[in-house]
Amino acid sequence: MKNILVPVGSSKNAKSHLQYAIDFAKAFGAKVYVVQIYNVYTKAGTMIKIDHILERESQNFLDEHVASIDKKGVEVITRVFKGKLIDTIEFACKSLGVDLIVIEPRTNSIKEEVYLGNTSGKIIKQTQIPALIVPENYEYKPIVKILMAVKSVLFKKENALKPLTDIKDQYKSILNLLLVETPKYKEGDLDISEDLSKLITNTSKSKSQTTFQGVLEHYQKHNPDLLCVVRRKRGFFVKLWEDNTILKRDFHSTSIPVLVLSGLKK
């Protein structure tokens, strides 16, 4: 893991979040790209050009933001981008060679009942970039136990497991795999590949309506430091992703980071 991207919003948790990302990056010897994205919506006939003003203000904000953090020897680079959120995030990740996005649950939302705000929800739901959702005010600590919950372990592309592999190797973590057999189970969905088998410490199985419900039933038993799920069109957050905003009462896991992988079978 070489390059980590941290999108910055206006939340009160922004400093704590960036500090976690820097502490996390230090463990891997990775660079941290701190980015802010702005867009300009102008009415027809408007003559005032404000692009350069917004860009300058965003850059000043990022520079001050980074200056307030203990960088601990980590290389931290700021970037300002203009454009639509998802397209621009994907462009930034591709151009910067990003391996992982570290995001806040609520980059802009001030509603206490919200777990995953609209902006963060869009990034998780609409991109194919591996992401680590870090709870608000969460202090960095080594990841000792990982719970990975899946309803299918069939791979769609190479290196889908790389972020998980990197984390497990770095921290020498215990990886508990929870195989969830849902009503949509197909023969072979839960056949573990050799690559995944090498990572697993323990395996358990569950029959549930959704992966999400399987996690709720086994979460306390495993008591993980990290929950790992897979981004699918209709996967782990099937119940939750009808909207980009996810409420805390609907998620039940707001106290540990969540690693969202991409690249497995839909």
Short overview:
31% of the residues lie in helices and 23% in strands. The protein has eight helices and twelve strands.
List the defining traits of the structure above.
266 residues; 10-stranded mixed sheet; 23% strand; two-stranded antiparallel ribbon; single chain; 8 helices; alpha/beta
**Which strands sit side by side, in order, in the main sheet?**
3-2-1-4-6-12-10-7-8-9
Head-to-tail CA distance between termini: 25 Å
Nearest-integer average pLDDT: 82
Q: Strand-and-helix sequence, N→C?
A: EHEHEHEEHEEHEHEHEEHE
Q: What's the total helix number?
A: 8
Helix residue percentage = 25-40%
- pLDDT < 50 runs, ≥5 residues: 107-115, 237-250
- SS-based class: alpha/beta
User: What's the shape?
Assistant: globular
Count the beta strands.
12
Strand composition percent: 15-25%
What is the alpha-carbon Rg in Å? 19 Å
Largest sheet: 10 strands, mixed
Can you walk me through this structure?
By secondary structure, the protein is α/β, with parallel strands linked by helices. Helix content is 31%, strand content 23%. The chain is built from 8 helices and 12 strands. It has helices at 14-28, 51-67, 85-96, 118-126, 162-171, 194-197, 211-222, 248-251; strands at 3-7, 31-38, 76-82, 100-103, 114-116, 131-133, 145-150, 174-181, 202-207, 226-230, 246-247, 258-261. The strands form 2 sheets. The chain has a 10-stranded mixed sheet with strand order 3-2-1-4-6-12-10-7-8-9, sandwiched between helices. Helix 1 links the parallel strand 1 and strand 2. 36% of the residues are buried.
